[in-house]
Design goal:
Chain lengths: 437, 433
């Protein structure tokens, strides 16, 4: 830190601006659900800890992402039903119950992660505002976000908020251009992207798995299918929808690519030569680390980006979780029903937010345990969901002529086996040591 | 037969025996008398060595307390394929249905059977938590919890007479007649609300079961976005049939929301007269008299007698929405005068229309702004105002309710009957797009 602060301030305003955009952007530009707090954190850490070494991984990840998302989008378009719906109608109550139980647990952890993101961004704001004691400021911010999210969604003004997010996002589209300004070693970037590089260390493998895990998650499968169904996309319109999925998946990973490059070109490069390497564990740490490297403004905006992503996903995740569960079990759902009419829907929605924010606010709360069990739930759920997806999409009664082709099936099964196996490995490995400590 | 009442979930997977020998397990139930409020169970589908065999209900000797089914003879016939018969498990269990009395969409967790009138019948659908728990194997927990915790959950058991499938589940040869279509018991506004709870595919599947007229009324209660999706889902042919049945102004509004190509295809499918009318209406801007008007008004000729005119109206009124004002036109559609239904009824039978009509006309032109149309209607205390072209030809009428709709602030208009518009919009906001 000292070394960095001592550096002469010779940068022009424009240059600083572009640099802050380059390193700050991730959460905001990908205001789609895929790059939430977990995503930002993982990509940043991958860049900060391993430089460009994990870039190659994004190519197979993109293919896997396209394959899985495309299947769900296709099922949505052809059957007109959500994934939870199809699972219920084709595999019965028991399978549905356990899948959705794991789903709710997993999303509870995800929701808690979003609120933890708010908490880790809070100290940055506090360092500018200097009001209230730090811990109280953090807790109040988390509580405020939780209450805000709950109120906004229930009041049905979510659309407005979404537009604000979206406008906010577009600022960060310049992120790609500005990644150029931090002067990454392009030769190295290209080589590392195209030629797989493998370091047989435990840390490297775990990071690789984490990157895969954050990109392909169970709830995304439910989410994209619901989106397609909700838009009323029909079979004859589906080819456009497929292009949409492919472009979206590539876009998501292009952003991830530039997040990794930017963090690699700043934090990783700094750490290589620094006497005191920066210790990065959360997205909040990244924001703090940027302060000396890319300026105060960059740090503040990174924190803002994180907050934005957290609020965005915290608005969507609990609501869609409650929705899919109620859909599968036939409870009344949707925010145009009164609480009395749809107690399960509202109860689940409120519980997810309350517990998610509660464990972040309450001292000595089981935040780690919740995230742990939710990761386990996600880890177990993902391979199961992927297998169910493959069974459903190859069912002629459901899909008619829209089942998978032979080649596509081969790619899909490989994806399922690899992703499934990696998630199981990560679930076991990542958390066993932590539990012991 | 010890079995008097019970749930399908308690029988599925239970052994089936003949002469004490186990020949397979219970897989499904064949349903008959589908036009009855409580259809009969006509057979049991037995899964034996990968094959599905049908055991006619007459061969069932006993259903034991533990669910074991004892047959008199081994079933020989294979069970008919799914598209030619109605089955409880594959067509209903775990599927979404419309609870016609509760006016909502629910999912069937379990199905109750009972012996009535000498037959085993389907009596109710369990859509509650107790049914779920029973299916999950926690029946005892469910029984204990239900009375206490879930007492407030309304209508967990739905009588089969108010269960309406969303999709047409009836095999083609036993298609239900209109009178037996349970969905027809619902008001179009309620149907529209249910459409809001369904995905586009399912909504279309439900609307397909309705007759054109009810479908048209339902469509009129939906917001433009949902109408549009539904029309696209239904396919040109059926959509055209339904739009033909809609009020002309609503139909024109809907058509104007669609693409040029879709509009052309739909109009080509309709009968020429309606299509011509709608083509005219679509041309006008939405917030003018032309855009608000309907061509569905009642016109009469000046030289007829009151008596003949009343006879004529009796003939056409059933298909006409607005008959309170009668517009007197000549052979070139030029508007000559107007009289109310009351004027006509009180007139001497032999008087000609010319003699009793009012000729001091209040009219608007097709380009008159909606606000002015409403003002005119209010000022003269009218139920409708005629829209007349520059050359004096009568084009249509704007009714008072359409005029009010057009000038209400959007936030109030939104609170009015089109609840489904809100449902749809909000769902679109919170579930991703």
């Amino acid at each position: 830190m000292n070394a960095a602060q001592a550096r002469p301030r010779t940068r022009s305003l424009l240059r600083s601006l572009l640099i802050f955009l380059s390193v700050v952007g991730p959460g905001i530009i990908t205001a789609n659900a895929d790059n939430d707090v977990g995503g930002i954190t993982t990509y940043s850490l991958a860049g900060a800890q391993f430089g460009y070494e994990l870039l190659w991984l994004l190519i197979p990840i993109t293919i896997a992402l396209i394959v899985t998302q495309e299947m769900c989008a296709r099922m949505g378009a052809i059957t007109g039903k959500g994934l939870a719906d199809l699972i219920r109608e084709n595999f019965g109550v028991k399978v549905t119950f356990w899948v959705l139980l794991a789903f709710v647990l997993g999303d509870l952890g995800n929701t808690a992660t979003e609120f933890a993101g708010v908490a880790s961004a809070a100290p940055i704001f506090h360092s500018y505002l200097h009001v209230l004691p730090g811990w109280l400021f953090t807790d109040l911010l988390v509580a405020l976000v939780a209450a805000g999210v709950f109120y906004t969604v229930i009041r049905g003004t979510y659309k407005i908020v979404e537009r604000i997010f979206f406008v906010f996002c577009t600022i960060y589209l310049s992120y790609v251009a500005s990644a150029v300004i931090v002067h990454p070693d392009w030769h190295k970037v290209v080589v590392q992207t195209l030629f797989p590089h493998f370091t047989p260390s435990k840390a490297y493998v775990l990071m690789a798995i984490a990157v895969i895990g954050t990109t392909i998650s169970p709830w995304m499968q439910f989410y994209i299918q619901a989106a397609v169904v909700d838009k009323g996309i029909r079979a004859d319109e589906y080819p456009y929808s497929r292009t949409d999925v492919v472009v979206g998946s590539i876009f998501t990973d292009v952003i991830a690519f530039f997040i990794i490059v930017s963090c690699a070109a700043t934090i990783y490069v700094h750490n290589l030569h620094a006497a005191h390497p920066l210790q990065i564990q959360t997205a909040g740490d990244v924001a703090s680390a940027l302060q000396p490297l890319a300026g105060k403004f960059a740090s503040l905006l990174f924190a803002l980006g994180l907050l934005n992503a957290a609020i965005f996903t915290a608005s969507i995740l609990p609501l869609s979780t409650a929705y899919y569960v109620c859909e599968a079990f036939g409870f009344e759902r949707g925010i145009d029903h009164r609480f009395r009419e749809a107690p399960v829907f509202y109860g689940l929605y409120a519980a997810l937010i309350a517990i998610g924010a509660g464990v972040v606010i309450l001292p000595n709360s089981p935040l780690l345990a919740i995230i742990f069990y939710s990761q386990v739930a996600n880890g177990v759920l993902l391979p199961v969901v992927l297998v169910l997806m493959l069974l459903l999409i190859n069912d002629r009664r459901l899909m008619g002529t829209w089942t998978n082709g032979r080649l596509f099936n081969a790619i899909a099964w490989v994806t399922v086996v690899v992703v499934g196996a990696l998630t199981v490995v990560s679930t076991v490995q990542q958390f066993v040591p932590q539990l012991g400590s | 037969m010890a079995f008097h009442e019970g749930f399908v979930s308690q029988l599925i997977g239970k052994p089936v025996t003949v002469d004490g020998l186990r020949i397979g397990t219970v897989a499904d139930f064949l349903v008959g008398e589908t036009d009855q409020p409580f259809p009969s169970v006509d057979g049991i589908v037995v899964k034996a060595a990968r094959e599905r065999r049908l055991a006619p209900i007459e061969t069932v000797a006993e259903i034991a307390d533990d669910g074991t089914i004892v047959l008199t003879t081994t079933p020989k016939e294979p069970a008919p394929p799914d598209d030619r018969a109605l089955y409880l498990v594959s067509d209903f269990l775990d599927k979404q249905i419309v609870d016609v009395d509760g006016r909502r969409v629910v999912r069937i967790n379990d199905i109750e059977l009972a012996r009535a009138g000498g037959k085993l019948r389907v009596v109710a659908a369990d859509v509650g938590v107790a049914g779920l728990l029973r299916r999950l194997g926690f029946a005892r927990l469910g029984a204990r919890l239900t009375p206490r915790l879930l007492r407030r959950v309304p209508r967990a058991i739905i009588a089969w007479s108010s269960v309406a499938p969303i999709r047409e589940t009836n095999p083609s040869h036993v298609r239900l007649s209109v009178t037996h279509n349970k969905l027809a018991r619902l008001h179009p506004a309620e149907l529209a609300e249910i459409v809001g709870d369904l995905s586009a595919h399912e909504a279309a599947a439900m609307v397909r079961q309705l007759d054109d007229e009810l479908a048209a009324d339902t469509l009129e209660h939906l917001d433009p976005d949902t109408q549009k999706t539904l029309i696209e889902e239904l396919g040109t042919e059926r959509a055209a049939d339904i739009i033909e049945e809609m009020d002309a102004d609503d139909a024109a509004d809907l058509l104007s929301e669609l693409s040029e190509e879709q509009r052309r295809e739909l109009l080509a499918e309709m009968n020429q007269y309606t299509a011509g009318e709608l083509r005219e209406l679509v041309k006008y801007a939405e917030d003018t008299a032309g855009g608000l008007m309907t061509t569905d008004y009642t016109w009469i000729y000046p030289h007829r007698t009151a008596e003949a005119t009343i006879r004529k109206i009796r003939e056409i009124a059933p298909t006409s929405e607005f008959i309170y004002y009668l517009y007197v036109v000549d052979r070139d559609d030029r508007l000559l005068g107007v009289l109310t239904l009351r004027d006509l009824l009180l007139a001497p039978p032999e008087a000609t229309i010319e003699q009793i009509m009012k000729t001091d006309l209040v009219t608007v032109s097709p380009a008159t702004p909606a606000k002015d149309v409403a003002a005119t209607i209010v000022r003269y205390d009218l139920l409708a105002v005629p829209v007349v072209a520059d050359d004096g030809r009568m084009l249509g009428i704007v009714t008072v309710d359409d005029a009010i709709d057009a000038i209400l602030p959007p936030d109030i208009a939104r609170e009015l009957p089109r609840i489904t518009a809100r449902t749809r919009r909000r769902l679109g906001e919170v579930v991703p797009s």
